[in-house]
Amino acid sequence: MTTRPEVEEFDHPDVVVVPHGPMLLRGATSVQGVDGTVHDVRRPVVALCRCDKSSRLPFCDGTHKVIPRR
Amino acid sequence: MRMPKPRGPLSEWVVARLATPVDGGHAPTADEWDDECIALWTLHEMSYRGFEDAADDAEWQPAMLAVRHELEVALEQRLRRRWPGADAEVADVPAALEAVVAADDGPSLADHVRRRATTDEVLELFRQRSVYQLKEADPMTWVIPHLPVRSKAALVELQYDEYGGGDPNRMHSHLFARGMVDVGLRAEYGAYVDDALPETLELNNALSMLGMHRRLRGAAVGHLAAFEMTSTLPSRKMVQGLGRLGLDGPMAAYFDEHVEADAVHELLAARDICATLAEDEPDQAAEILFGAFTCVDLEARLATALLTSWDAA
């Protein structure tokens, strides 16, 4: 069954940059967008747009998935 | 909720036995797929909220478990026969999940809602969806104790958001219930089960089976990943379609919530739940892909059935 010992200390970063995807941010309570607007955050993890094409910046809306990868 | 209307001899037997448990005896054979689907749905529901007209202790009655088992074996065989299988070695689970989702050539209900659906068609879609959406995320909660530490923590992180982070008003199933009321439909749990197509019931039965069986944990989280990976863009289309029909209240807000939520959930599911599970338990990698395939396949079958009934296929 389990091949890894379950006593190790795992990485659990607060900020994760996803390849060809958004930036995941854990534990934030507010995020300021490029236009200066401050958005309240109520979910434990948010995805911030990195492709700049999201319809709800600064958050990811999945649009990057339909943009050809450079 | 009261038990659903039987759809054949098997579901008639199941409903009667759940109302008045008697041990022993043989269940009759289902005469149709529909009969089989509603029978298994009813048996599974005993492990969720149950029915006011069923005996609570019938949930674990050996005779009822035997029927449940037989129907689940048939269901699993059906699902596995459709699956083309996975490569012998799955090196990159998130990429393999993306490939399963990309290979889906089923019709899109969200596209239809965005461009052409009538209000009646959208309401019919909500009645079908309500069978799952009013207990959204519940089948996946069964999976938590079946997982090793990293995938378990990630699944809890995801489920916490599904359940509104502890705020009942933000719980996704409750957001959906408020949406149902707003569009003039009934919001009580199980309200439209009698209207559910067999495709809807099978989709729910598969999810319950994957959730409840430890053996199927890989398939369960693979299903979750595919579900989340096919949610953000369709949810946006649903918001646009509801706006087109002037239904831009709480139901649109429900789908709007899923755009941002599922942009996060799809990554947690593919990377932190599925990929770590496959790392810890390599034999689960293929199972994860089986679950993902099952999700897109069952969704495509429901979409085809609905679009065909609307003459929009």
Give a quick rundown of the structure.
The complex is a heterodimer of chains A (70) and B (313). By secondary structure, chain A is mainly beta.
Describe the structure in your own words.
The complex is a heterodimer of chains A (70) and B (313). With 70 residues, chain A is mainly beta. Helix content of chain A is 0%, strand content 24%. Chain A has a 3-stranded antiparallel β-sheet, with no helix packed on it. The model of chain A has no long low-confidence stretch (mean pLDDT 90). Chain B is mainly α. Helix content of chain B is 65%, strand content 0%. Chain B has 14 helices and no strands. In chain B, helix 10 runs antiparallel to helix 14. Chain B is globular. The A-B interface holds A 1-4, 6, 10, 12, 18, 21-22, 24, 42-47, 55-56, 59-63, 65-66 and B 148-150, 153, 157, 160-161, 165, 170, 232-233, 236, 259-264, 266-268, 271, 279-282. Chain B: This is Iron-containing redox enzyme family protein. Chain B: InterPro entries: Haem_Oase-like_multi-hlx.
N-to-C SSE string of chain A, H for helix and E for strand: EEEEE
Share of residues in helices of chain B: 55-70%
Distance between the termini of chain B: 34 Å
Rg of chain A (C-alpha, Å): 15 Å
Structural category of chain B is: mainly alpha
CATH class call of the largest domain in chain B: Mainly Alpha
Separation of the first and last Cα atoms of chain A: 39 Å
CATH architecture of the largest domain in chain B: Up-down Bundle
Q: Beta-strand percentage of chain A?
A: 15-25%
Shape of chain A: flat
Average pLDDT reading of chain A? 90
Extract low-pLDDT stretches of chain B: none
Q: Would you tell me the overall average pLDDT of chain B?
A: 96
Number of H- or I-type helical stretches of chain A: 0
Structural class of the helix and strand makeup of chain A?
A: mainly beta
Largest sheet of chain B: none
Give the largest interface. Answer: A-B, 26 and 26 residues
Strand order of the biggest β-sheet of chain A: 1-2-5
**Strands of chain A, total number:** 5
Protein name (chain B): Iron-containing redox enzyme family protein
Pfam families (chain B): Haem_oxygenas_2
InterPro entries (chain B): Haem_Oase-like_multi-hlx
Organism (chain B): Nocardioides glacieisoli
